[in-house]
Amino acid sequence: MPPGTGNAARGEGDARFLKRIERTAVLVVLVATAAGAVFGGIDWAGGILGGGLLAAVSYWAIRSSVDALMALTGHSADAGADGGAAPDTPSARVSSGRIAVSVLGRHALLAVLAYVIIARLRLHPLGVLVGASAVVLAATREAFRVPRPGPRS
What we know:
By secondary structure, the protein is mainly α. Helix content is 71%, strand content 0%. It is built from five helices and no strands. It has helices at 5-39, 42-72, 96-120, 125-132, 134-143. Helix 1 packs antiparallel against helix 2 and helix 2 crosses helix 4 (125-132). The longest helix is centred in the N-terminal third of the chain and has 35 residues, at 5-39.
């Protein structure tokens, strides 16, 4: 196997893994929202959607922060087959101060969103909890998923 090929294959596998979790989380939120609307009314359905939105924004914030930190260290999920971008490329040179401000901004957005969902819109708090748990449920499903038989490298 050529050098670096394993890192590229691993990155593709990681991307597929995350996509499965994302799809499952969206499906969980949609099914739970429909069930919440039927059994708990519009407050529950809105709470579940709001919690799913909180989870999605949180996921985006964490993933963007990790991607930025990887770029800062000279590694990138979409880098070439060598497993990382060259440290002298403009895309790899991201200031740590800019990353810190970005992370704080993302979490401030998350806090404002949570405030609006719970205090202003007054959506059902248990519904918000159910919606926010969608990513956890999706990850749990993925953990117990039986891998398909096939060639392994």
